[in-house]
Design a protein that fits this description.
It is built from three helices and twelve strands. By secondary structure, the chain is α/β, with parallel strands linked by helices. It has an eight-stranded mixed β-sheet. Strands 4-8 form a two-stranded parallel ribbon. It is globular, with a radius of gyration of 19 Å.
């Protein structure tokens, strides 16, 4: 089953327009001790996305957790070239907002639907923070999820000549 594109509206934190693959986290993200800015990878051992890279992807997450160093660690991802392409977060805090600003990536918050339930990892997302919209182009179902309807019967197989 193929899902149809969905458009959400939200509030701009940092303007800009990007398009890319979504990485959705069900848990808040820690900056200091939670990410490796040199690689753009989540390194918090108990995090559901442990070991996954957000570099060049649109990071969709509930918000920031941890110390005020959060913004500094995300700023370091920009300097290292490992920053997210864009960010969408649910809960606005000063550290998340400042982190988005210093990372300089298009960012939205306060969407009219919960992005954590509408957007899935792997979906193609157009994040237009200039207009305050997110367009979600759902990823096709994986091939393993498709059910084959063809039947192979040995009596119908051709023998090589």
């Amino acid at each position: 089953m193929h899902r149809k594109p969905v458009v959400l509206h939200g509030r701009t934190v940092v303007p800009g327009i990007v398009e890319g693959e979504a990485l959705v986290s069900s848990a808040t993200v820690s900056g200091w001790g939670g990410i490796d800015p040199a690689r753009g990878v989540i390194i918090e051992r108990r995090h559901p996305l442990y070991g996954q890279s957000f570099a060049g992807r649109i990071l969709v997450f509930p918000g920031a957790k941890g110390s005020s160093g959060w913004s500094g660690f995300f700023h370091a991802t920009r300097l290292a070239g490992t920053a997210p392409l864009g960010m969408i977060f649910v809960t606005v805090t000063s550290k998340a907002a400042l982190g988005a600003v210093v990372t300089r990536v298009p960012t939205l918050t306060a969407l009219d639907a919960d992005p954590l339930t509408v957007i899935r990892t792997g979906d193609r997302v157009t994040l237009d923070a200039d207009m305050g919209t997110v367009t979600i182009h759902p990823a096709p179902a994986p091939a393993s999820a498709l059910v084959s309807t063809s039947v192979h019967h040995p009596s119908t197989a051709r023998s090589p000549r």
